[in-house]
Design a protein that fits this description.
Blueprint (H helix, E strand, L loop, with lengths): L27 H7 L6 E2 L2 E2 L1 H12 L1 E12 L9 E11 L10 E10 L12 H18 L20 H4 L4 H14 L3 H7 L12 H17 L15
Antiparallel strand pairs: 1-2, 3-4, 4-5
Helix pairs in contact: 2-3, 5-7
């Protein structure tokens, strides 16, 4: 009599359901970076624009407020340094509506001056600081590990700029000089020559010397004692 065949149970095949990691998982940073397109990375560092685009997707949240606060403006006394704090307010789309941890706020700060900014952007420290601060806030909110936004890196820093480059005369100073000179009928070329300042290239005048020129013009206005040798306003002096 033939032995009855043993019934076999079909082998269960494991279905690989790829689980999306959470911010507490070691794979989280790689997952978030994988959401970026190639043009949202510079040398493998995510751009602030890219982090901003994927922020709500990665965290399944909604940003309700994104603001920048300029806490330090460029000035002659701070090496023209700008400091900005950027804050993000967002709430998680899933979870208990009444839960206090559903609503979150993160901030990032950045300061920028000629010593930590590419030369091409160093005349715009507030704008650079704002972008860097936002990038840091986004990184903090996303809980990324060992990641720096592309805008936080600088490759072409001028280590030792000369004094005039860092503290040169500003357009506001030039315009103010022109207003006072016209009002007082002063020839600015003659005045600058009298003060032994360059007239062939006005932007070679330092910020400090420009302050002294404005002070001199203000004194002329207050005392009404302009010497005749510098009279004769000429609008082509700039």
């Amino acid at each position: 009599m033939a032995r009855p065949k043993k019934e076999t149970t079909p082998v269960e095949t494991e279905i690989d359901n790829k689980k999306i990691p959470t911010p507490n998982d070691i794979e989280w940073t790689d997952y978030v970076l994988s959401l970026l397109s190639d043009d949202e990375k510079i040398s493998d560092n995510p751009t602030t624009d890219g982090l901003r685009r994927i922020f709500e997707v990665a965290l399944n949240c909604t940003i309700t407020e994104s603001t920048s606060d300029v806490v330090q403006t460029p000035d002659i006394n701070n090496e023209k340094r700008a400091t900005v704090v950027h804050s993000l307010t967002f709430f998680l789309n899933d979870g208990d509506e009444e839960s206090p941890i559903k609503y979150r706020v993160v901030s990032g700060a950045a300061d920028v001056y000629w010593g930590n900014c590419d030369k091409i952007y160093r005349n715009h420290p507030v704008a650079v600081a704002e972008t860097r601060a936002e990038g840091r806030a986004l990184r903090r909110g996303l809980k990324l590990r060992k990641v720096v936004a592309a805008e936080e890196l600088a490759k072409d820093i001028e280590d030792h700029p000369d004094h005039d480059t860092v503290t040169k005369i500003t357009n506001n100073q030039l315009n103010f000089m022109d207003v006072l000179a016209k009002r007082l009928d002063i020839n600015m070329t003659k005045l600058l020559e009298k003060l032994a300042l360059p007239v062939d290239n006005l932007y070679n005048i330092s910020y400090t010397d420009a302050v002294n020129v404005v002070t001199q013009l203000t004194q002329y206005q207050q005392q009404n004692n302009v010497s005749e040798d510098i009279l004769g306003y000429d609008s082509t002096w700039k």
